Amino acid sequence: MNRAETIADVLRRPVLTRPVLAHEVSERLVQGLGARSTVVEWTATVPQLADAIDTALGAGHALVIERQGGDLIGTCQCGRRLGRINPATRLDALAVPWERHTSGALAATA
């Protein structure tokens, strides 16, 4: 199954593995309607749906560093924000929180 087929499959039958977080209730929701119907079969927050797609695709916890203005922003591939540093700061300032995050995430799945 290719990436597009996997995402389409998740959108047909999402496996929502985590509860809605309080701050997500005021954000956008995604609803899956039945085929040729207006009947709602499932409802999810965008982060819940992203988690379901990431799980289906086997997405991991890569450290992502992006430049924003004069700063470097560190996030995990799963979406967790790790911090903001200036370019003169050692990348360890982002790598250490990422390692802590991934250690916790791996322990939770064990």
Task: Give a brief description.
The protein is of the alpha+beta class. It has helices at residues 3-12, 46-57, 92-109, and strands spanning 29-33, 40-45, 63-68, 71-76, 81-85. The longest helix has 18 residues, at 92-109.
Key words describing this protein structure:
25% strand, elongated, 110 residues, 3-stranded antiparallel β-sheet, two-stranded antiparallel sheet, 2 domains, 3 helices, alpha+beta
Walkthrough of the structure:
This protein is of the alpha+beta class and 110 residues long. The protein has two domains: 3-57, no CATH class; 63-109, no CATH class. Helices cover 36% and strands 25% of the residues. It has three helices and five strands, in the order H-E-E-H-E-E-E-H. The chain has helices spanning 3-12, 46-57, 92-109, and strands spanning 29-33, 40-45, 63-68, 71-76, 81-85. The strands form two sheets. It has a three-stranded antiparallel β-sheet with strand order 3-4-5, with helices on one face. Strands 1-2 form a two-stranded antiparallel ribbon. Strand 4 and strand 5 (81-85) form a beta hairpin. The longest helix is centred in the C-terminal third of the chain and has 18 residues, at 92-109. The radius of gyration is 17 Å and the shape is elongated. The chain starts with a helix and ends with a helix. The relative contact order is 0.13. The mean pLDDT is 83.
